[in-house]
Fold this protein.
Amino acid sequence: MATLDAKIPEGPLKDKWTNYLNSMKLVSPANKKKLDVIVVGTGIAGSPAAATLAQLGYNVKVFCYQDSPRRAHSVAAQGGINASKNYRNDGDGVYRHFYDMIKGGDYRARESNVYRAAEVSNGIIDQLTAQGVPFAREYGGQITTRSFGGVQVSRTFYAQGQTGQQVLLGSYSALRRMIAKGKVQMYERRQMLELVIKDGHARGIIARNLLTGELERHTAHAVVLATGGYGTIYYLSTLGVTSSGSAAMIAYRNGAFFGNPSFIQIHPTCIPQLSDFQSKLTLMSESLRNDGRIWVPKEQGDKRNPNDIPEEERDYYLERRYPAFGNLVPRDVASRAAKERCDAGYGVGKTGQAVYLDFKHAIKEQGAKAIGSKYGNLFELYEKITGESPYETPMRIYPAGHYTMGGLWVDYELMTTIPGLFAIGEANFSDHGANRLGASSLMQGAGDGYFILPNTIGNYLSDKIKTSRLSTEEPEFEEAEKRVREKLEKLININGSQTAASFHKRLGKIMWDHCGMLRSEEGLKQARTEVRELKQEFWNDLQVPGTLSELNQELEKAVRVADFLDMSQLLIEDALNRHESCGGHFRQEYQTEAGEALRDDENYMYVAAWEYQGEDQMPRLHKEQLTFEFVEVKERTYK
Amino acid sequence: MKVKLKIWRQPNARSKGKFVDYDLDDISPEMSFLEMLDALNTRLIQQGDDPVAYEHDCREGICGSCGLFINGRPHGPEREVATCQLHMRSFRDGDTIVVEPWRAKAFPVIKDLVVDRSAFEKIMDAGGFVSVDTGSAPEANTTPVKKQNAERAFDAGVCIGCGACVAACKNSSASLFVAAKISQLALLPQGKAEAQRRALNMVARMEELGFGSCTSTEACEVECPKSISLDHIARMNREYLRASFSEEKD
Amino acid sequence: MSHFLTSPVGKKFIMSITGIFLMLFLIVHLTVNSLLMVGPDAFNSAAHFMTTNSFIMVLEPLLALGFIIHIIYSAYLTMQNQRLRPVHYKKVDRWGSSTWPSRNMFILGGLVLIFLVIHLSNFFWKVKFGDLDTVMVQGTQMHDLYGLVSALFINWWWYDLIYILGALFLALHLSHGFWAAFQSLGWDNDLWRVRLKRIAYVFAVIMGVGFSSIPVYFLITSG
């Protein structure tokens, strides 16, 4: 059985990474050529990891299920990417950056990893700039920054509202350069469906060619998962609709521990659901809350046009409940407050699942032009989707699933509990604890990909130089492929009557209602039953048309939903286990009198790492105790 | 609302395709175009038919996966939107909507509305990058970049690689796609060092892969979901001509 | 350099350079032609100068070469480009995204070419190889080109129509060709595109109105 050793280097916080680099084992250039590394996923963690590993001399094979690595969902990140540059001379630095992240994560992240993330952040900006990422600049030609939630400095680098796109394309171009040089073999339109393990070590994957249906065997000395988050478990989320938790679940079923699976960030300002057919929720940047005021009618079910509702009949509930922070309370608080109002029947719009974000006052005070210059592109995006202009009618917004702080448990080297299997970016349980600060997801992914993994993987591979390539004819490959084939055949032969999407929608609703913003023992137990029933129904009444040997998008969906069903069970158990509220995990039973999150540091200051015990079996909990040597653990207050 | 769809159906790359008519009755104007197709697919699956294959992912106009030729225009009738941002309120009750895949020799059809855009990847491989290894970058503020140039580079850099420019062009030219990358990197000092080489190689690769030349009809700029300007094609031409008439060759 | 001439940008470069050269010729041509409306002596003198000046005589084969390259390259480009969409769209709506002339430069060019052949057989052929009347202007013996032109336009009304149509096709061709030439040469940018387009329209209108004003002038003055 795998045990939890985070392998945190000795020494003072600021020296840990340097000490690690100084003492890690290296692989000589001549030997790197003999070593193969598989990277699954091409987002802001996978692309730079693959490019950097190839530059170092490893043979790299990269897999993505889209037609191009550039389409990974990192492309949709809007706001920015943090770094501790202190360009503004506003007192920023690595320690402050680290401290903000630890506190923002509600003291549920590992100090050493978080410090390292802050430490390598500056190099990311340098690297991206050199790659031609057009960061916003001042007239003097220097890079400019802006502020983001949860911090008092200005450390966010950005390229308008499309930072993720620009940053990803920079990394993508680095990847393409290495592909052109023949150092990376690129496999597009492939989905990883199984992990191959030999003698306890990750040695390859089984991937399905999505165009032909062919199952391919790929061998390697190490496998890196950069497969992103699983927020689409809610069906509706800000993620790409083909994002999934499948790779993480494959690793989990093969013995990798899953860290804090239920830690999911719900973003408060998204365009709400407009119809039952809706497939996606679009994020509206948090920055809107600087000038927009959030309200609902004071009367339940008030269906009047919002512009016809007079001031005295409006409930600016955030300003009422949180007079100090008002509309700028942290994400989790804003999300929960919106849900509370809607559940109580004050929600607006067709579905009653929305609140108003109103710019009327701001436009009156500053003029439409000033507001347009700040938020014009967001207003346009909103209008494209809803057909309504926020200049004239208040925006309707609602929280939506956004980012998963949870993920595969990894040690300081970003290795999972399966030797040779690494997880980077959002796919690992990460540096964000129970809540992620804005503009730190690109940073963490890029940090893992550019600077951390390419070093730590060498430490692992250094004693694999005598290990020859594992033949794909070995029984381990044979068996793994057989497992995949059986599962796919099972899915396609159910011949039921319901589509994969319809199951996903129902699962999403269960999870959103009971394991979303607000959780309770009762609700989670109900969800546990409902998911079990839904899972049974899925395996009895799913309809997948077509065959296994062609482009079959319904089959792809079915695979994702099957994994989400299993994953939901894991999430529910994790949420049930944690008898406290922290960050994005809010248990109704554990709140202060004022309705704030109530942590239980004595009993729950640990990472819950879950070990798979078999289909429908209760997973086994391992605890990685978190120790805070370098910061003082305090209560997070918002008032 | 009701719509009549004429959709290109083609089981695979080898087979011949044809248009198939579908009538949809209960369409809400709030639905996105892709959600309307989802509704059609749900019906098809329940009838035991093969659903319509089409590409999509982010559904917010940034990943570039989706790309349908709708009623004679890439991404449909609205300006500055990808197909996923098109909504049914842009159509009238009773409309007939013709849905086709991108048509170009360089973008062969894979299935139904899915085309192979890997030619774009090969163009990128010819030089759509700055040759800098991880770790070798200087401090980001060492080289000042004129604000206007950074902004222009951004305006070119927003290309989502959807292929609408090729689909819209009467010559199936990829000039706007290629120019966006060449121009973005030529505008920045970081990309300047290999700007000439990049222009020569990417333009040559574009032609090899079966894309046409630019007649400056401006259709690509109008149909581009990100409104990338023809200005960048001029800059590409400039870089290419400069490179062609300079001594530096490799 | 060999690859340059076959590359997408290189081919357009050739089209642009020859196009600009031909536009310069049009300016000279229209200037001389407008003397038709001044009087026989003025026009005949100018025409005489144009046919006897040694510099102009050197330019003449160059001009012919310009035409030929412009035409051959356009045919080459059009044929190549048309092969790049083997399966056509069922429904195409380009009205919202581009102008008709920009999409039909080859057709417009072809129409102008047909006109050019008629035009050459009417005048150029006769001047070079025909037996024209001569006149005496300020002591110099020269061909009476004015007589040739005026006779054509006064006696055959359908030639007036052909020349007006020719001028119209030319104007449409130039309305796109003028600024596109600069775009292909890389001179364009967002600021200059607007300006060049305006200049293109003005240039096209001057050429179209200018060339068609001559047959119209003869039609009106001949009563």
Notes: Chain B has a mean pLDDT of 96. The longest strand of chain B covers residues 3-9. Residues 33-46 of chain B form the longest helix (14 residues).
